[in-house]
Design goal:
The complex is a heterodimer. By secondary structure, chain A is mostly helical. In chain A, about 55% of the residues lie in helices and about 5% in strands. In chain A, helix 4 (about 60-65) crosses helix 6 (about 105-125) and helix 7 (about 135-145) packs across helix 8 (about 150-170). Classes of the chains: A mainly alpha, B mainly alpha. Chains A and B meet through helix 2, helix 4, helix 7, helix 8 and helix 11 of A and helix 19, helix 20, helix 22, helix 34 and helix 35 of B. Chain A: It comes from Amphiprion percula.
């Protein structure tokens, strides 16, 4: 029993080093993980799709895909997992860690890159290094599908316009016969410079146990 | 510039002098006339032709004059940019107040103009705060709500308590000499001077552009701490009247309870009034003229109601503005929204100006100045020191909980930005002289603190911000892709919170949005408004508008005559320039043309120029609500503006349009001429040999005009006559006309959008085909050049670039079709400059030069 505890403590320590979460946060997330996976070792798409609060999210599919995307594990692999373990789960979650006061400038920059890469991967579904118009359209369509006022055609047009905007920003002097293939990561970074990704793309991971708070959630 | 400023200054000084002398004279003459009346008794001296009744108008006259003078002062100050860059406007206005006060003092030997609490709290403050609430960035405010509340409540209490106690301690220690102030009175003084003032904060921070989180912190605090100040002030005021002996625990608890009642009650009143405004604007479709008035009247009523119930009036009006902003912007007509926005700014800015001038004037009053070095300097010191301590301590606690901690630099600016202002002065003036013996000293100290914070800290704020390298606000508008990305963000963060099982900020916001969408919007928003309200959609529209503009501009730059024949470009073109530049155009002709095109357009859908069709969509927005969208109506919407609206029958409730034939004709000619001028200059820029083009043109024109009775041809023939006339006249005018360059060309699409089409220019210079404009040949014989067929050079390159991206040819415009009511389709789609494959429209098809 004691040996098991030290082993899990050791494991948590590893994960802390890898992901930057505090042991308490990891413990909490682990609990959540077990809750989601019904105490299995791994989690599957179905597990995530069953989360009731997620049902209304227009980009649910993209988010869930991101969890099973090997690119988000920082191991230079591509493709998709069928199921992910806790470590992978944590790795994906670690993209949403907030910066702290102690974060240095370089770390901040690295964090920003990671976050951007995550976003980029979410759009770039075929992993060819560019977000093509079709890929972008798809996201925008799904994003706007929930707000009933905007139809599919409008969503398409908005995606087109946004794409055109990117094109005009990044390649201001395009030869007449050129056409813009898609957003590369560099361009993506360039466009989203103003959004202050590093200070916005994060959520609060509580240090305390959140299981007790879930009663409010299950109602919704 | 400086001289002009001087003249203004002189003028205002003279005005004041004049007024005071007039008032003296008036008093004298009034007296005399009374006298003479008495003398003559009943003898009628006939009806006086002119009487001078100064006293009759005195008060409103002086008020109006005072406002005028303050505005003129602002005008002078704003005219000197090099000064306002260093010294903030508020400080300059106070200084102007000093001068003005000096003049008045010199003339009257007594300060006739002082800022009384009634005037300030009832007539000057509400509009400033309403504006602040109305233009509050809600999302930012609520996501920092916790921190703002901590600063506003705890920070203010801390400031008040520490200041009062320290001053009392110093008093006990004998630092101030002989003063008749007790502990409670010190605390009362502390409470009135503790609060950061919204007016001063807005005035100073507006000019330094710090990052938005920092701004909302200071600004939000200054708004919300009013509740605290009011309670503290009232409680201590009551305590002072009660006297120290009678204060017991019950009274103190009552005071604490009253804080919650005052703060939450005030907010609730504001909220209710905000909902009321939103509901009302739902049904003001038929009284659009006075629609904006509701916002102001109800806002003011919210303020007064809260005041009446002795709740926090400032909180009330802030929340009123914050609640209604979204709904009224969606419900009201676009013009009304603009009216509200502008009127709000006029009131707020105006009264801000007056407040500062008043603050300056108030200083020049001998009765007010009671100097006590110890008291004043210690107050000043404590105000600043405790502000720093409070902010740093609270931030230290807050940073333990904040996801994005506030940096030290931000904290310094927050502390330094703790400006005191007119609210403190107003409260000080409200002190009861019978209860507080040293009222004048307190008022005097308050004024000095205000001057110090507004002038000294205001001036040093900008250098400090630069020196500390505080993150500045990003000035750029969000681009469409950024907006989309923001939306992705929101949803993504919620999703991650859901998956990780946290109930956080995003979760709450999502739930609130859901609730808001489902219930509040349904109740408070017009159904039609709900549809168009999406922000993304709005940006998309704006983008399209810009696109259309650059489209026309590009055509114009080419010097192509073509696009005036193309009636949608025609409209765009018109729109592009100031409306009083092209006052009106014949609506009938335009209507005819649009209808013609409507019939044709169903068959021809071209993705390339579709973006410019959005223009119509835009124009139609206002019309769409009424079920009978007809062409005439639409065109009238944007074609009739400018001068004509101002003459004609007077009507209070409608902007009537004069449909007189003769005038329309005349106006049309005038418009055509002016258009031609701009256009000629463009044409001259590429210098076509006019001798060649002249006569064939006429012939061709007649032919075409004869064969087709379309009104478009009428425009053309008319135009060409003019053109010829102009050419023969302006022979020497080669090169671009300077007026062309100075025209308001708003083609800022984004960097590098309006690119010259290289394929086009050489074509113009070399080919003889240009000299005889091809569209003048018989329409059937037009053969686009090889190059044109390949390249569609006439379309702006930015649009063309998209073409390969599109997989569907039914993109934007087909969406338009879906969006607009069915009968709008007719007018919606004038033919784009089409690729050669399209069927010929009534005016000869467009040749791509």
């Amino acid at each position: 029993m004691g040996a098991k505890q030290t082993r899990s403590a050791q494991k948590y320590q590893d994960l802390t080093d890898k992901t930057g979460f505090s042991p308490e946060q990891i413990k909490n997330l682990h609990k959540r993980f077990q809750h989601l996976s019904d105490n299995e070792e791994t989690i599957s798409r179905e597990n995530l799709e069953k989360i009731p609060a997620l049902a209304n999210n227009p980009i649910r599919k993209q988010i869930i895909d991101a969890f099973f995307d090997k690119r988000n594990q920082h191991q230079n692999e591509v493709g998709a997992f069928q199921e992910i373990g806790f470590e992978q789960f944590l790795m994906v979650m670690s993209h949403f860690r907030p910066p702290t006061l102690k974060t240095t400038e370089e770390e901040r920059e690295a964090m920003r890159k990671e976050k951007l890469r995550f976003l980029f991967n979410m759009h770039d579904t075929d992993n060819d290094g560019t977000i093509t118009l079709e890929e972008y359209r798809k996201v925008v369509e799904e994003l706007l599908s929930k707000s009933g006022a905007i139809g599919l055609e409008a969503a398409k047009a908005i995606a087109d316009a946004a794409m055109l905007e990117v094109a005009s920003t990044n390649v201001p002097h395009m030869a007449p016969d050129d056409f813009y293939e898609g957003i590369t990561f560099e361009h993506f970074e360039q466009i989203l410079k103003g959004l202050e990704m590093e200070s916005r793309m994060h959520i609060r991971f509580l240090d305390v146990d959140t299981m007790t708070m879930r009663c409010g959630k299950s109602k919704s | 510039m400086r001289r002009c400023g001087f003249v203004h200054l002189l003028g205002s000084v003279l005005l004041i002098g004049f007024v005071s002398s007039v008032s003296c004279e008036a008093a004298l003459t009034g007296h005399e006339s009374n006298h003479s009346e008495h003398e003559h008794g009943s003898s009628l001296s006939g009806i006086p032709i002119v009487t001078f009744k100064w006293h009759h108008v005195e008060t409103p006259y002086l008020v109006a004059l005072f406002i005028l003078v303050s505005f003129l002062a602002k005008l002078v100050i704003e005219a000197n940019h090099h000064v306002t860059n260093i010294i903030p406007e508020s400080a300059l206005l106070i200084c102007f107040g000093f001068i003005l006060g000096g003049i008045i003092w010199g003339a009257d030997k007594v300060q006739t103009f002082t800022l009384t609490p009634t005037v300030f709290f009832f007539y000057l403050l509400p509009q400033v705060i309403l504006d602040a609430g109305y233009s509050m960035p809600n999302k930012l405010f609520f996501s920092n709500m916790g921190a703002i509340l901590v600063y506003a409540v705890i920070g203010t209490c801390w400031n008040a308590a520490s200041l009062g106690l320290s001053l009392w301690g110093c008093h006990m220690g004998g630092a101030m000499g002989d003063l008749d102030i007790g502990l409670l009175q010190y605390l009362l003084f502390g409470s009135l001077i503790a609060a950061v003032d919204p007016v001063a904060v807005i005035a100073v921070f507006e000019q330094v552009h710090v990052n938005e989180v920092l701004f909302i912190m200071v600004f939000g605090e200054s708004l919300l701490n009013d509740g605290v100040t009011v309670v503290l002030f009232n409680v201590f005021d009551a305590f002072v009247s009660l006297g120290g002996a009678k204060i017991n625990a019950v009274e103190i608890i009552k005071g604490i309870i009253s804080f919650f009642v005052v703060a939450f009650g005030g907010s609730l009143v504001g909220f209710v009034f905000g909902l009321l405004i939103s509901l009302l604007t739902r049904c003001t479709k038929n009284i659009q003229i006075i629609e904006p008035g509701f916002v102001f009247v109800l806002g003011y009523l919210a303020y007064l109601t809260a005041e009446m119930l002795s709740l926090s009036a400032i909180l009330s009006i802030v929340f009123c503005g914050m609640c209604c902003q979204k709904y009224i912007n969606a419900n009201m007509d676009e013009n009304s929204v603009n009216t509200v926005r502008y009127a709000m700014k006029v009131f707020a800015n105006g009264s801000e100006t007056i407040i500062f001038v008043f603050l300056g004037i108030s200083a020049i009053d001998k009765t007010l100045w009671v100097w006590n070095t110890g008291f004043i300097l210690l107050t000043l010191l404590f105000v600043i020191v405790y502000r720093f301590i409070g902010v740093f301590f609270l931030t230290w606690i807050l940073n333990k909980f904040r996801l994005v901690p506030l940096e030290v630099i931000d904290q310094v600016i927050m502390s330094y930005g703790g400006l005191r202002g007119a609210v403190a002065y107003g409260l000080a003036m409200m002190l009861d002289e019978n209860k507080i013996k040293e009222k004048n000293l307190m008022v005097c100290t308050t004024l000095i603190v205000v001057y110090f914070t507004v002038i000294i800290q205001g001036i040093t704020m900008k250098p400090l911000v630069t020196w500390l390298k505080v993150r500045r606000a990003a000035v750029s508008e969000l681009t469409l892709i950024e907006k989309v990305q923001n939306k992705v963000f929101d949803h993504m963060l919620v999703a991650i919170e859901d998956i990780s099982g946290q109930i956080g900020h995003n979760y709450m916001r999502d739930k609130w949005n859901y609730f808001e969408e489902k219930w509040m919007s349904k109740v408070l928003m017009k159904p039609s408004a709900r549809k168009n309200r999406d922000r993304l959609f709005k940006v998309f529209h704006q983008l399209n508008l810009k696109d259309a503009m650059s489209y026309v501009a590009e055509g114009e730059r080419r010097g192509s005559l073509e696009f005036i024949r193309n009636d949608h470009a025609y409209i765009d073109f018109k729109k592009k320039f100031d409306d009083d530049y092209y006052e009106e155009v014949m609506p009938d002709i335009m209507a005819d043309m649009s209808e013609d095109h409507g019939e044709m357009s169903s068959g021809r859908r071209d993705p390339v120029p579709s973006v410019s069709l959005e223009m119509h969509e835009q124009n139609m927005k206002a019309v769409r609500d009424s079920e009978d969208v007809n062409t005439h109506h639409l065109l009238q919407q944007h074609l009739y503006r400018g001068r004509k609206q101002h003459r004609h029958r007077y009507s209070r409730s409608h902007f009537d349009v004069n449909k007189d034939e003769g005038e329309v004709q005349e106006v049309f000619q005038r418009t055509m001429r002016s258009r031609l001028e701009s256009f000629k200059s463009a044409k001259m820029g590429v210098a076509p040999p006019k001798s060649l083009s002249k006569h064939p043109k006429k012939e061709q024109q007649q032919k075409v005009g004869g064969s087709q009775s379309s009104s478009a041809d009428f425009i053309e023939s008319f135009l060409f006559c003019l053109l010829d006339f102009e050419f023969s006249e302006g022979d020497s005018a080669s090169g671009f006309n300077p007026s062309y360059n100075s025209m308001p060309m708003r083609v800022t699409y984004r960097a590098g959008a309006g690119i010259e089409n290289l394929g086009f220019m050489p074509d113009l210079d070399s080919g003889p085909s240009v000299q005889l404009p091809p569209w003048l040949e018989d329409s059937s014989s037009v053969v686009p050049s090889q190059r044109a067929q390949v390249q569609l050079p006439w379309t702006p390159s930015s649009l063309r670039r998209l073409a390969p991206l599109r997989t569907s040819t039914r993109s934007t415009d087909s969406f338009m079709m879906a969006d607009a009511p069915p009968n709008a389709q007719q007018i919606d789609l004038p033919p784009p400059p089409s690729p050669p494959a399209s069927p010929p429209p009534p005016p000869p098809p467009h040749h791509h030069m």
